[in-house]
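Worked example 4.2. Below are the chains of a multi-component assembly; read each line carefully before continuing.
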Amino acid sequence: MDEILEILEKDARVTPEEIARMTKKKVADVKKKINQYEKDGVILKYKAVINREIVKVRNEEVRALIEVNLVPQKDLGFDKVAQRIYSFPEVASCFLVSGTYDLLLIVRGRDIHTVSRFVAEKLSPMENVRGVVTHFMLKKYKEDGVMLKQKEEDKRIAISY
Amino acid sequence: MKPSGIRAFFDLVLGMKDVISLGVGEPDFVTPWEIREAGITSLEQGFTSYTSNKGLLKLRLAIHSYLKNTFGISYSAEDEILVTVGVSEGVDLALRAIMNPGDKILVPMPSYVSYGPMTELAGGIPVYIDTRKDDFKLTPQNLKKHIDPKVKGIIFNYPANPTGVSYTRKELEQLKKVLIGHKILCITDEIYCDLTYDFTHTAFPSLPGAKEYTLYLNGFSKSFAMTGWRVGYACGPKDLIAAMTKIHQYTIMCVPITSQMAACEGLHSSQQSVENMKREYKRRREFVVTRLNKIGLKCHMPQGAFYAFPSVRKTGMNGLKFAQKLLTAQKVAVVPGTAFGDEYTDNIRISYATAFEKLKEALLRMETFVRTHRK
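Applying the procedure described above to all two chains together yields the following structure tokens:
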């Protein structure tokens, strides 16, 4: 992967000037590349990873992992059915997986009832959905390589040879 | 032996709060999890005993394979490898094993703090080679000037602490010719070998004809971010390793078994972590060195390790004064160059083994500081 992407994936706030210094490239070239990545949809979005364990939002949302068994559509396979499912705004992530079920969804909702209603009223009744298993998430430990815990302080002594 | 002159400055740093430290001589990464996990598992399984004096055979075998696969040198796990308490113990054992009273040891300067004092402790005389006029690089000409019949060995550290200087294969070849020509033992401290950025690191004993004149020292502290585990190793001619093992068995007995088991895991499974760390350091290096030069602190581009060694001459202050004032005015800690040799009054050592965010902030503060203090 291009080094620019590697740097931004780790920290999206690193500026083009800083990236240019780190990679020995011209600032203009870095900017151009980033623009191109944004245009091509390589870079889709910049966002912060928030540790909700600490924030304790008042209207905290719930998340559920949902296994979905599908009946594939003739000629279209799973893609068309999957699209009908992942287009719902409640679906935060959607993966086609191998194994005992076909789709794995991460669904978000205001509370447990909202998610239940989504499953009961929207997802399960769909024509190509053969069955669903819902797992409500209890606690998140790690997300996208980031451990969700209090920032650890530097344990090294401040000065050494 | 004289006490370290900048101890007082170190105490000042340690007594201060909220300092951004660019003065740390160890990686800012924690030991990769798979290595820590191996240490924990070994404790759970009850591995709490002594090991063979030379170190666990499986660790020596792993070291053998690593050196063979990475640098193409073959040391026998049986009698040419000794597991030590960091490279520090390796240097100490070597010096004590080879030195007769009055023998001389060459030490290219500036250097890591312990080489000179350890030489003296072993009854020898350190001969310091100043490298300022060659951008801190040891040249064959400079080397030749310091050789006489009493010179028994050289302690040669590359990539180097505190300058980050390293050597290409060609440069090493030239130094080798001079050293071997005079039958000088090359004690090479290659602890930063995995952090070489612009070319491939050449292990000194891998040069044709060099192996029998080399004591190769390396360890796990820097590559695997394992400083606190204290594991290193010495590889060299059978007789020398046997002599060193004798001293080691009476003074140390063996390296703690937990550390040895963890180190084994490092060699088996953590090469990817090493590669990731290196990429990250390389980016920081480019960032830090270009910024320093822009601020007006002249700095050569280091080829390895995680140090930059800029000159602060332009500010009209010496390194110690600069470090003291920077600390009180901007709460940024750096190490004065004199920590690594009396002559290096113009320089400071900056460690970029610090999270990028902090590096950025520290350099901003340094910029402000230099602007207000320029002559």
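Take a moment to check your reading of the output against the notes. The first helix of chain B runs from residue 7 to 14. Chain B touches chain A at residues 10, 13-14, 19, 21, 23-26, 28, 112-114, 161, 279, 283-284, 286-287, 290-291, 333, 335, 339-340, 356, 360 (CB under 8 Å).
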